[in-house]
Design a protein that fits this description.
Strands 2, 3, 4, 5, 6, 7, 8, 9 and 10 form a nine-stranded parallel β-sheet that branches. A four-stranded mixed β-sheet has the order 19-11-1-20, with helices on one face. It is an alpha/beta fold and 370 residues long. The chain is elongated, with a radius of gyration of 24 Å. It has two domains: 228 residues, TIM Barrel (Alpha-Beta Barrel); 123 residues, Lyase, Ornithine Decarboxylase, Chain A, domain 1, CATH 2.40.37.10. Helix 5 links the parallel strand 4 and strand 5. The protein is built from eleven helices and 20 strands. The longest helix has 19 residues. It binds pyridoxal-5'-phosphate. The site of pyridoxal-5'-phosphate has 10 residues, from strand 10.
Length: 370
């Protein structure tokens, strides 16, 4: 038998979500497919986006773009974190450039190859991660103006990233947007008018004015609500945002055991049966991306019913308490994510976010595209 989990990827839902995201902004979407499309499978997901039409795809590293180009993806690809020049020319990629030093390297490489390269400039408006720091002085402005004059380089985009965008807590995002718009205006005053994009998933709903020339979005495309309920609506969950979950992760029960009362289950005996119990073993553990933090916390679905994880999640297997669920046999399905078990709910059980749930559970799964 095969270990681990299967992820069913609903490409129709993915296309629906892209439409929703397009309707949030002016229609221009940079679809983020880093980390194997958040565990959904970058090649198939990117092909679907390419057919539907996106302004560009975005990945973290050039190696991810290499896989996409190798699979025939023709769309522009923005690379968010990787600035080793060679692959950008070989694979026709667009770098997010984070410093003047890096800009000069791209320029030198372009001149050496007799080529030109389109780049996006990343400014750090408060994320504290990468990009030209934008603060009180005009250092960033000077650097970007100088960058725009480098031979072989075309500044086609200006981008930044929000550190925090939550309902009821938008002050810092507004400050970041103000800084971004300020540098944008100053560049425009010098005749530099690149495509401006700063908004990702949460801010697409919370700060529509940050939409600018494009939305650079991942999470929403995969059908996950960025926070519990949309502004102005009483309902919650993905449907309230007009999003459809894309990933369903399941496995098969490999063993069913019946225990009397008082039987400890799994390492450290953190779970002890409180009654006559039926325990199912599934071939998924933390080595498959099913977090150990789910121990005694998470639920799965068996025959449509919620069943709790019993005891510690092990490296290769996990036990579920299926006591009272009728007609379960070995070989039956256990759903770990989807069908009403949302990414944010699983994330809550493990003290993490839906991004980590999807990249871990989806990343470790065999995939089926529908
Ligand atoms: C991951 C990422 C995004 C997408 O964020 P979502 O919250 O998934 O929409 C956008 N921009 C940058 C720079 C990122 O790293």
């Amino acid at each position: 038998m095969e270990r681990g989990q299967e992820a069913k990827i609903d490409l129709k839902a993915l296309r629906h979500n892209l439409k929703t995201v397009k309707s949030l902004g002016g229609g221009a979407v940079i679809a983020v497919v880093k980390a194997d499309a958040y565990g959904h499978g970058a090649v198939e997901v990117s092909s679907a986006f390419e057919r539907e039409g996106v302004l560009a795809l975005a990945v973290a590293y050039a190696s991810e773009a290499r896989q996409l180009r190798g699979s025939g993806i023709k769309s522009p690809i923005l690379v968010l974190f990787d600035e080793e020049p060679g692959p950008f020319f070989d694979l026709d990629l667009v770098p997010a450039v984070h410093s003047l030093k890096s800009a000069r390297r791209f320029s030198r490489e372009a001149v050496r190859r007799g080529r030109r390269i389109d780049v996006h400039v990343k400014v750090d408006t408060g994320m504290g991660r990468m990009g030209f720091p934008v603060s009180g002085d005009d250092r960033a402005l000077k650097d970007i103006v100088e960058m725009a004059s480098l031979p072989g380089l075309r500044v086609r985009g200006l981008m930044s990233h929000f550190a925090e965008a939550r309902p009821g807590n938008l002050d810092f995002a507004r400050l970041q947007l103000e800084r971004f718009n300020s540098i944008r205006r100053q560049l425009a005053g010098r005749g530099i008018t690149p495509l401006a994009h700063i908004s990702s998933s949460a801010s697409s709903f919370l700060l529509p004015e940050a939409g600018l020339d494009a939305l650079r979005v991942g999470l929403l495309l995969y059908g996950v609500a960025p926070f519990s309920a949309p502004p102005g609506g009483p309902a919650s969950g993905p449907a309230a945002f007009d999003l459809k979950p894309v990933m369903e992760v399941s496995t098969r029960i490999i063993l069913i055991k019946r225990f009397g009362k008082g039987q400890p289950v799994s390492y450290d005996r953190t779970f002890v049966t409180a009654r006559r119990s039926t325990i199912a073993v599934i071939p998924v553990g933390y080595a498959d991306g099913y977090f150990r933090a789910f121990s005694n916390k998470a639920c799965a679905l068996v025959k449509g019913e919620r069943v709790p994880v019993a005891g510690r999640v092990c490296m290769d297997v996990t036990m579920l308490d299926i006591t009272g669920i009728k007609g379960v046999s070995e070989g039956d399905e256990a759903i770990l994510l989807g069908a009403g078990l949302s990414g944010p709910e699983l994330a809550g059980w493990a003290g993490t976010n839906a991004y980590e749930v999807m990249t871990s559970l989806g990343g470790g799964a065999r995939r089926r595209f529908e």
